[in-house]
Amino acid sequence: MSRLGGRILVAGSANADFVVRASHIPSPGETVLGGDLSIVPGGKGANQAVAAARAGGAATAMLLALGEDASAGLLERSLGDAGVALHIVRTAEPTGAALITVADSGENAITVSPGANAALAPGDLPDLTGVAWLVMQLETPIDTVVAFARAARAQGVSVLLNVAPARAVPPALLDAVDVLVANEEELALIAGGDGSIVDRLAAVGTPIAIVTLGARGCCAWSDGAAVLQGAFGVDAIDTTAAGDTFCGTLAAALARGDALSMALRTASAAGALATTRAGAQSGIPAQREVDHLLATAVDDADIADLAHYCGVGDRAD
């Protein structure tokens, strides 16, 4: 992995989230009366940058594309308040937007309009001197993500890729990734649906591959072995940005030199806390809150069940 003490650069999406709470997620053709509309800063890249900055351990910067509109100002203020240094590509396109319905159960449904995010180009990558980790997602053009990852690899910068939203990933990108994070659906799209979860993680081919499994926890495959982390028991009200919080916190933990098992535990705690409050960036916890949960949580996660679900112990190499 990359040198310690370097900065984290998040390159990716920033959106204004238009959020409505409702009793349930509408079915096709159904109209549901919801609550008041709120407009809050979001986008997978921006959420992960805020999470990394709040986790501490490494200075965090973000490369993002914004329009010339009120939504851009909303995002700039939120990122700046979190301590994220900004490399902004200004475009004539409107700032990206996401339409989010949050059910009373805490689950959500999201539709994204990329807007300015689609303008992020390979030549926009800033100087990587002093950068230890490049963190990316898939809400910006895939050719740009590949170019950024290959440039980082050539300069000895470690790459963490969150393969969200789910889409096919070219081999050239996987070849330049050090840590891949996916949910179960995203992992199946990359590695296929055959075999156990650990079989699929191993098939990804990156040095570390991680799958997040919601209320079950998460599983990583590294150096030919599985690393399991159970979920923290919390009362979830909104799962928006929980995965982004996991990714940003994970990058911060790895940047400060935490072992993978501890990095997964810290990231899982942060992701769990993010589900206990509404909003994307507004719901991302500070590190002191994560530390408190880590110190006080009762470890009631069923690791044996998680191991069985993932196929740990069943894999024959």
From TrEMBL:
Class of the enzyme per the UniProt entry, highest EC level: transferase
Cytoplasm among keywords: yes
Residue intervals of the Carbohydrate kinase PfkB domain: 8-286
Entry-linked InterPro entries: PfkB_dom (IPR011611), Ribo/fructo_kinase (IPR002139), Ribokinase (IPR011877), Ribokinase-like (IPR029056)
Free-text comment on the cofactor: Requires a divalent cation, most likely magnesium in vivo, as an electrophilic catalyst to aid phosphoryl group transfer. It is the chelate of the metal and the nucleotide that is the actual substrate.
Reactions mediated catalytically: D-ribose + ATP = D-ribose 5-phosphate + ADP + H(+)
Pathway: Carbohydrate metabolism; D-ribose degradation; D-ribose 5-phosphate from beta-D-ribopyranose: step 2/2
Cofactor(s) this protein cannot do without: Mg(2+)
GO biological process: D-ribose catabolic process
Domain of life: Bacteria
Control of this protein's activity: Activated by a monovalent cation that binds near, but not in, the active site. The most likely occupant of the site in vivo is potassium. Ion binding induces a conformational change that may alter substrate affinity.
ATP-binding listed as a keyword: yes
Catalytic residues (positions): D244
Subcellular location, record wording: Cytoplasm
UniProtKB keywords: ATP-binding, Carbohydrate metabolism, Cytoplasm, Kinase, Magnesium, Metal-binding, Nucleotide-binding, Potassium, Transferase
Subunit record text: Homodimer.
Membership in a protein family: Belongs to the carbohydrate kinase PfkB family. Ribokinase subfamily.
Record-given protein name: Ribokinase
Gene: rbsK
